[in-house]
Structure formats: C-alpha cells, structure tokens
Amino acid sequence: MAAAVIDGKAFAQGLRGRVADAAARFQAETGRAPGLAVVLVGEDPASSVYVRSKGKACQEAGMTSIEHRLAETTTQAELIALVEALNADPNVDGILVQLPLPKQIDDKAVIAAIDPAKDVDGFHVVNAGRLAVGEDALVPCTPLGCLMLLKDQMGDLSGKDAVVIGRSNIVGKPMAQLLLGESCTVTIAHSRTKDLPAVVRRADIVVAAVGRPEMVKADWIKPGAVVIDVGINRIEAGESKTRLVGDVAYDEAAAIASAITPVPGGVGPMTIAVLLRNTVVAARARLGLGAEAGL
Length: 295
Ligand code: NAD
Prior knowledge:
By secondary structure, the chain is α/β, with parallel strands linked by helices. It has two domains: 31-127, Rossmann fold; 141-268, Rossmann fold, CATH 3.40.50. The chain is 41% helix and 16% strand. The protein is built from ten helices and eleven strands. It has helices at residues 8-30, 45-60, 76-88, 107-113, 125-133, 141-154, 172-181, 196-200, 250-254, 268-286, and strands at 4-5, 35-41, 64-70, 94-97, 161-165, 185-189, 205-208, 226-229, 233-236, 242-245, 259-260. It has a six-stranded parallel β-sheet with strand order 1-11-8-7-5-6. Strands 3-2-4 form a three-stranded parallel β-sheet, with helices on both faces. It has a two-stranded antiparallel sheet with strand order 9-10. α1 (8-30) runs parallel beside α10 (268-286), α2 crosses α10 (268-286) and α6 (141-154) runs parallel beside α7. The structure holds nicotinamide-adenine-dinucleotide (NAD). Nicotinamide-adenine-dinucleotide binds at residues 142, 165-168, 170-172, 189-191, 193, 196, 209-212, 230-233, 267-268, 271.
C-alpha cells in the first residue's frame, strides 16, 4: 500500500493560523505585537530570500518584523554590538542572526551573545543544554517542526525505535533529544556509521538530515515505518533545468513506508511556522505570561 503523504504545507498553514491568534491575544494583553528581529550580514542570495520570507510571514501573523541588513564587511564586534542592542530592546522578543556569516565573524561568538530568552533559533548552548536535561527550552525550528509532524501522524511516540541520520547542532542532535524526550529509543547515525542501511532498517521512525540527494533507498526502510525527510538538495533535471529532492528516494520509499514527507512541501514549510511559534512563546515567557495551548 502506498504511504500516506505527510502534508507539511497544510500543517504549517494551520500552525501559522494558531500563531496569528496567539499574537493577537498577546497584543490585546500587552498593547504591542510580538517582535522578531532578523539580522542578515552580506548579500548571499539564498539568505536574502529566507530573510525576506521570514519578515513577510511575521507580518502575516500580525507580528512586528525588524530587519537589519549589514554589509559583508561588518566586523564581529559591530555585529555583537547590534545583538546586544536587540537584547536590551523591550519590543524585541526574538533575535535571529541568519547563518552562514562572512568568514571574519565567528558564528559561535555571535550566537553566544544572544540573550537565551530571545534565542528563537534555539542555537544558544543554554537552550541546547535545557533541551538535553528536559527543561523548557527554545528548540531549533526544523527539528521541532519534524516532531510536530510525527506526533500529528503517529500520536504517542513512546517506545518507538527512531533513527536520526545526521548529527548537526541545527537538525540531527536536537531532533534526537526531542525524540528521546518522547520516550523513543533513539539512534543517531552519521557519516562514520557502519552499515547504515541495517541501522535504518530497525527504525519505526526515520529522520534523514544529511544533505545527500536520494541517499536513503527503499530497501533501507522497514515496512510501515514513518519517514521524515529534512534534506533539500537541488539536482540537474535535464534541459538545463534543476529540481529539488530530499535525502530519501521518495517514490520507492513511499511504496514501503506507512507515511512520508515529500520534498518540497513536507518539512520545509514547517521551519518558518515554528520560528513564528517560537517568537510568540518567547514573548509570553519573557513577560511571565502563561503558555498558550495549541502551539
Ligand atoms: P550538515 O551538513 O550540518 O550535517 C549533515 C550530517 O549528515 C552530518 O552530521 C554528517 O555526519 C551526516 N552525513 C554526511 N554524509 C553522510 C553519509 N554518507 N551517511 C550518513 N550520514 C552522513 O547539514 P544540516 O544542516 O543538518 O542539514 C541537513 C540537510 O537538511 C541539508 O540538506 C539541509 O539543506 C537540510 N535542511 C533543511 C531544513 C528545512 O527547513 N527543511 C533546515 C535545515 C537543514
């Protein structure tokens, strides 16, 4: 039987609607909208597109978007001075510094300068630590979005065997922590894992976050497993065209899995929706307001 297609686009739209309602309630309670500051250094075209779509999504959800575009030649000290000003600004609830940064700037130093209470990307070590010990944390957007899709599809995840392929700080590691928090038995696989197909074959849940087009094949998938494909890879599609594919060979895996996310339209749309969600969550937490249900 063909797998159910997990519609991340529809789920993300629903989440954005719930965030908009929560932002309106925040405004009614506090007299101002939740505010997200996005900082872009340099002219990287892909980053520029991301920043623009984050700002637009913010405004659509009734939130304030504050964009700072700095020159490619910005120094680390200048960028950190801006981050500190945003930390001190009471109308800013979330701060996102778009990565990658130019080579003269150390990402880690900049992330460390962000107030953890405003770290809506969840990259600060304080938030990574809180997630690891099971305390309330701001969690990286992409893996939190994957978890939302999994829970929506499967309900209780407790006791499931989960394999996360990839161990980046942005996706793989926080994904593994989130699944552990749901009482899954979690394996983190990576580029040095031996016999990856055999490891993946154990999994009830597969999360692929590698960046290798269509690496995960159908015969790696246990029949009935749920597959979440984080990968976004652009490949040649003939006649000088390109197309996007994930890390999973979608058509063949969809014949074996019970549910699978497509690329595009699966995990991708979740990232910005969760960023908006994290901003409202951060705004309420900073002001000591109670958490919102349904986020
Ligand atoms: P990364 O390059 O930081 O990490 C990739 C991981 O894959 C590494 O931990 C590495 O050990 C592992 N790996 C590499 N080759 C492997 C192999 N042959 N076998 C097993 N593991 C291998 O990448 P990342 O930032 O975690 O992103 C992963 C993918 O997810 C990329 O395609 C990226 O574009 C995509 N991504 C998508 C979103 C989204 O919004 N949907 C967000 C972030 C990343």
